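agent> call fold_tool(seq_1)
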Amino acid sequence: MAKEEVLTIDPNNSDAAQMRETAMAQIRLERAKQNPPATAEARGPATMMAATTQAENDRRLLKPRDINRIRQIEMNLDKGTDKIAAADANIPIRFEHEVNRRYARDLAKRPAGQFLALSSLQQAAEIVQNGPPEMRDDIKIMRDPQSMFEYKRAVQPFVIQNCATSQCHGGQYGGRLELITPGSSEPAMYTNFYILQSLTKKAPEVGKVFSKNQLAAIDRMQPTRSLLLDYAIPKNLSEYDHPDVPNYHPPLRGVEDPIYRTMLNWISNMLRPDPPVNYGIEFRPGAATTGPATTGPATGEATTEPATTRPATSRPAVGRGVNRARMRG
């Protein structure tokens, strides 16, 4: 070809080089038409299995909308700016589809100019409190609130290491409580949090006059009764024992263990204290989210093991809302 001859004589001839690249691109295009990429089925069982596994994992995870709702609620946007922790006051907020201007024009109970003069945090809080659900979804919280940052930093690593192994709640032996591993991605982390905070089970009836009907993995009102904490300490110190399973050993020494204290502080002082928490999402472990929930989060469905109790002992209660030693029996 003439261009090849030119390149042989002068390798730096730009016109010939460009013509050759154009011709080679045309050849590649024609070959691609004649030999289309193999489908997943044509590539073999291994590729099909990988694609299926990825699709299943996607269905098991909370979606970005769900994560945003959790962030809104955990930073107390629905309660107004006076309830927002100082650590959360400077979280960046993005208004999509000009939701703040739409609210100011159509729904704000003040002149639009006055509403838009408020800070982004004040505008977001008012829209979340008074606006319709579809407007809430256009308020994007761009960073983890303090409670979720601490969960990611200190709580989930403990849960993944001690509760989400393949022989426990990270595999087929965990009953109906199945946590997501690895939990490092944002969707996995928030999904594990949602599963834990939604988990309740019926309390055993052992003649306790003031026994609660439901036990919670994360008890926001009485943090020391959280099963997440109780199950992690030895039986002679716990009120409710971890169900008997082979080779289970409580990972913490007791209520003075630094990890116990860290998790207790997280429940007591960083999570909002008023259950039931309704994030306005619908999620069942192992299934995709499908839209707003008409009731609160799923409860009592994640596990079926019965809780058991120990003989009467006492341990000091610490944390918000508890100001005396708890007596059991």
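agent> call fold_tool(seq_2)
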Amino acid sequence: MNSLKTTGIIIRRANTGEADRILTIFTKEYGKLSVLAKGVRKISSKLAGNLEPYSVAEFIFQEGKSLETVISAVTIDHSYTLSDDCKNFAKAHYFGELIDKLVPENEKHSEIFEIFKAAIIRLKRGDNDFLLPYFELKMLDKLGYSPQVYYCVKCRHKLLADKNYFSFSDGGVACEECRSAGFLEISVEAIKILRLIIESDVSLVDRLNIDLKLREEIENITDNYIKYILDRNLRSKQIMNKL
């Protein structure tokens, strides 16, 4: 049987059998995989300590008929400091659930993996209020759901520094003349920030300093846009918002 070696982050675990687990791992080389970890719920398991959620690890899988089996795992970056902070752990869980719902299995997305890994590492350094909308927008961008923030989604004319409106159903910003019922007014400053996020790397979250009102406007737009795409509220987001 062939073996696969990859860097990955566990985003979901489910118990099966007497001592096994099925792990959902988002990997750099192979995308999202469901794999079997045999005997990891036993006290004597040598693998268990390296199979913590949101830890970055090097994995080796043995190919099987239905599921790959984990035969080796070596942690690169532990999640222990993250698990000590309920709010940040809840954010990591939300990031993982978002990937689980939006990314199909066995579909390589190395750029999203790097964004996810960078977000997890920054969470361990401490909370950053802007990391959440950054991750959401960058992920949507890499999956082809990036909102249109340069041209009106209706008439295709270049957006002016005037009254503009976000259309969740059309996937972007509409001008004053093209607005319809249900469109959400969006400030010129928020449009600029959305453009900046889409164009920048993760270091932006450490450099950007915006006021609370603008941050809440951007969070409201990204949150409702994701709800529209998924046609549902994610349970992890609801838990995170209560903390």
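agent> summarizing second result for user.
Strands lie at 3-16, 20-27, 31-37, 56-62, 68-77, 164-167, 172-175, 184-186. The first helix runs from residue 80 to 83.
agent> awaiting next instruction.
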